[in-house]
Amino acid sequence: PDLLAQELLEVDTSMKRYWLTLALGEFALADLRTDVGGQTVETLEAWYAEDPASSVHSAVGWLLTCWGRQSAVDAVDSRVTPREDIAGREWFTLGSQEHPMPFVRIPAGTYQMGCLAEELGAKPYETPPHEVTISRPFGLCAREVTRAEYERFVAETGHASLPNIDDWSPTQRHPVVGLTWFEAQEYLEWQNAQLGVNTSEEAPQGLRLPTEAEWERACRSGATTAFSFGSDRALLGKYGWYQDNSGLLTHPFRTLRPNRYGLYNIHGNTWEWCSDWYGPYDTARTTDPCGPEGSDWRVLRGGCWNLNERYSRSACRNWHIETNRNWYIGLRAAWTFG
Question: Which of 88, 150, 290, 333 is deepest in the core (most CB within 10 A)?
């Protein structure tokens, strides 16, 4: 581990820093020599505060948390990004010092949405791969909305609380689960009011649910494989909580590795509501698709804590009626840049 740590400190590209940071996470801080460990922690804390790459930022945040440096991570997380500076790097923080929300900037671009029929676990409604263009960058929260965030909304608005949530998400750092699609929208509208942003159609800005196409682009983070980290299902337990490793509970963010865009728990943990109605894919080349004009169901993505590996694949699709309330459903906020 000492040689790995020393190599990490010498690299100068974001992808090398990302992958070597994840590799170093196979070891405890105590496995390093005292001098090497001290230098590594000092450098990692500086990178967490200053490196503009979201991949590095989130990977380092995960490793520092694993190594018991949560206070250093929290100190950086509480630095809210001024609205005019959001575009200056790949990660930013919204909210307040007391209630920070970490976001990553997902780039515009074209990718292959869906999967081949030959992919292990693929279903006909997930195929075939088709070209989708996301024309503008957007923000996506690095984690799911937490209980603490949602319960502040409940306390300040008088909205009904979620029953029995302690059974599935026992602490304030766990993701909120059991909310309907309508409640997800109400929560985001309330958060926009707290942020004081303009969500009008003429000059849209603010928090919202991601479209299904945005969600898959963010999940894939450039990969064309079954998962953002490849197609080896044996590695899923390092990136996502599912039936084999979850203990049949949700888990807080930064407990497992982020993907290459810096998103935690994008595989497994909770299904995440999307804005789209569910329907068969339009397999023609499309730009900024947002689903059919109507349906009986809304899209869910990501897999969850009580299902197997198939459901945590990047291409996996699920759907429910908008009023469905279940303890495997949560949400992840998207951000529209003004």
Answer: 150
At 106 the three-state DSSP class reads strand
3-state secondary structure of 306: coil
pTM of the model: 0.97
Q: How far apart are CA 162 and CA 150, in angstroms?
A: 10
What letter does residue 300 receive in the DSSP assignment?
Answer: E
Question: Which H or E element spans position 94?
Answer: strand 91-95
Cis geometry, peptide bond prior to residue 124 (ω within 30 degrees of 0):
no
* Alpha carbons within 13 A on the beta-carbon side of 211: 19
Q: How far apart are CA 215 and CA 226, in angstroms?
A: 15
pLDDT exceeds cutoff 80 at 199: no
Q: Are 286 and 261 in contact, with CB atoms under 8 Å apart? A: no
Which residues lie closer than 8 Å to 98 by C-beta, 6 or more apart? 78
